[in-house]
Amino acid sequence: MEASEPMTGTSVSDQEVFDAFPDVNLTYDNIEHFRGLLQHKLVINRCADCGHWIYPLRPLCPQCWSRDVNPTEVSGDGVLYYQTTLMEGRHMPGFEHPHLTGGVELVEQAGLRYLAPIVGVAGGEAVEDTPVTLVWLDTAAGPVAGFTPKAGE
Amino acid sequence: MATRSNPIQDQVAIVGVGAAPYSRDSQRSLLDLGLEAAVNAIRDAGVDRDQIDGICGTGLGLGIMVTHGAGALSLQGALGIPSLSWTMNGWLGSHLVYAANAVYSGACDYCLIVQAEHRISAWSSAANQDPYRVRASRFGVHSTVPNVHYSEGWIHGGESYAAFANRYMHDYGATREAFGMFAVNNRQWASQNPAAVKRTPFTMDDYFNARMIRTPLGLLDMDLPVDGAEAMVITTRERAKDLRPDPVLLHAMSLGQAPVAEFYENGNWGKQAPWKAFEHLWARSEIQVEDVDLWYPYDGYTPIALAYTEAAGFAPLGEGWQMLQDAWNPEEQKLALRGRTRVQTGGGSLSHGRVGGTNYYTEAVHQLRGNAGEGRQVEGAKTALFGIGSFFHDPTAMLFRVD
Predict the structure, then answer these.
(1) How high is the ipTM of this complex?
(2) Residue B259: its chain A contacts at CB < 8 A?
(3) Mind telling me how many Å the CA of A87 is from chain B's nearest CA?
């Protein structure tokens, strides 16, 4: 399977999202996130009333119980909350071993973490709390939001 | 002292335990293993099978219609039990809580619990070459989580536990030795357990030299996939007195849950489900953590055991690794928390074998009856505490006692 081409700048139909992610349980609650991946936009559900970011992607704000939820693009900045290098065992979809994977705490909200490949780390030795920024990776398993240490940090 | 009402306290008892042999390749079906354990447990209890009126079988959130496995429906038919008034399936340690509440409420009087496990194809590259295991992966309790998108890719995998182990060391200054102590301790106990699959002791040096799988966790940090099964029979305390002199009483329990990190991506050490479970257990217990003789923390991955050990109150948040240093007995190569509490006396999931923690319950029943044997019996043990479940979800906090 060839690496996918990003569909930036174009509209993406529901059917195209279903076709691009055959193994994801796509629902009305999470499809905008995956549509965003195809367009190279990291989109997270957000409460329109109180501004709370809702992740995992759900249809009700757990803070104020509003159903007015808007999938919204995040800035792409965060810090590496935790990480592990996978030497063997099962693979993360689209990547081979050894592979550095982490949970990035996005700057938008405390505890808002997104699981992602961590790339461009000097010597492969990642350190918790390192500032990181979004980088798009097009893999055989589809587009993946990766993160890399911020320049100069 | 308990701070809230707990009417079920000491009112439900374990009267029968049984197992099927553990092995790496039994060449037997999941149901076959479950049935052997069930028959042994029912015989150990001394009840007639017609008296069994409740079954909690093996299943992972699939309700009663688990087929091709050891779910309640298959177990009842295969065992020829004519009539049930209560059924359910469960996994990890929760089945005992479900069943205890059913017995206490009168939904059933004698409940059979069966947990059977296979070394499934998803857990081992060797198992993934076995046509029986590959075929089973498509059915029932063997169904594996599909290979979803990267952002959901940590579910039911080791990545999250490894990452949290790194974060723990980063935040609290611990080293891998804290995790290794559970691995060495459990193997040392397994060397005294003839039912354990791995019985050759290893040292801390061996632990550090083991193959690295997901940093900082190596081969000896991870539980041992096996074929095996455990079963129990429980009933009310009053009925138990007529069956045997040494029923094991369920003193307090909780299925405390934190907001679930669905993809294992959020939550913090100290705020996860294990801490909730023990907060709710201690609120219901007349026994204190200082009085615990035997401690069985879930050891699917060694950092989980450390998390449950802190959550249960054996050490303050972030100080478990230091407490373990005081608890380590280099001559024995075993832990004794506060010089007293013994840990995973049967070898746990790491060395006895992985059956989801039900073997902790049955090992403790033998200990509390005083018949663990083989040099591993803890003299005078009266209480056993359990923390069985994931670091993220589905924890069971349970406390056994005997008179």
Answers:
(1) 0.89
(2) 62
(3) 5
